[in-house]
Write a structure and sequence with these properties.
The chain is an alpha+beta fold. Helix content is about 25%, strand content about 25%. The radius of gyration is 20 Å and the shape is globular.
Length: about 250
């Protein structure tokens, strides 16, 4: 009887350890206390640019099961009833202030009471062609869904723009190396971003941010010259890319 009791205690301790060390969650600590250099951000960077697949034809493709994408990028810890993905734009002003869960541009999609919905803002200080709206997603079609490139078009069924904003009918989301994201809409606006995570686990969203910045600085069409990256000093970018920015600047 006593042996059975100890076995039960041991099993519960294993479960507890597994939960505490989950790579998805990370530690519940404030992001302002984290040393960026200690955040693990391993990413395999593929050849080519995130912008080299811009002429894809989506309309003739079959609809894509968005629950696969929601499962693959489940950084909000298994909200199975209403899962969602949040893509935040890279903003040097917010990042240098360590305001990682705030964004000036974003695209968020997921289920609300079994209805696939979205919220987005693509209008920004660096691209005034966009809009701010929310509504229902009619369908999603993907021309590529691999580890190196995901490219999907989200067709909006209903659109409720913010006061005075123009109406948009779709966005195309491109994800390179499961890290760097580009969002573009039918109004001509676009932004580079990363996949956000639950604010309780800064190690996860900081890891996602670092991976996105690593892919961005190595991208032959982005490098250090993109509007969203020019606000960083090379020292700040080095801290967020484990020294990769300086290597790129040196032509390595």
């Amino acid at each position: 009887m006593r042996n059975s009791f100890y076995i039960i205690i041991f099993l519960f301790s294993l479960i507890g350890c597994e939960k505490d060390t989950s790579p998805l969650k990370g530690s519940e600590i404030g992001s302002s206390n984290i040393d960026y250099r200690k955040i693990e951000s391993k990413v395999t960077i593929s050849d080519g640019s995130i912008f080299w697949n811009t002429s894809d034809e989506f309309d003739s493709l079959e609809g894509f099961n968005t629950r696969k994408m929601l499962k693959d990028f489940d950084y909000f810890l298994g909200k199975q009833a209403d899962p969602y993905v949040s893509i935040d734009g890279i903003d040097n002003n917010l990042i240098t202030q360590k305001l990682f869960n705030e964004a000036t541009v974003w695209f968020r999609f997921g289920y609300e009471k079994s209805i696939l919905t979205y919220r987005t803002q693509t209008y920004s200080w660096f691209d005034t062609a966009g809009s701010n709206s929310e509504g229902i997603i009619d369908q999603v079609k993907c021309s590529s869904y691999t580890d190196t490139l995901i490219k999907c078009k989200f067709y909006f069924g209903t659109v409720t723009p913010a006061n005075g904003m123009p109406s948009m009918s779709w966005v195309v989301v491109t994800i390179k190396d499961r890290a760097l994201v580009n969002v573009e809409d039918d109004l001509g606006a676009s932004f580079l971003g990363f996949i956000d995570a639950d604010k309780k686990y800064p190690e996860r969203y900081l890891s996602n941010l670092k991976k996105a910045l690593k892919v961005a600085v190595k991208d032959p069409e982005i490098g250090l010259k993109d509007e969203q990256l020019r606000g960083f000093t090379i020292e700040e970018l080095d801290l967020l890319t484990d020294g990769l920015a300086s290597q790129v600047k040196a032509g390595k």
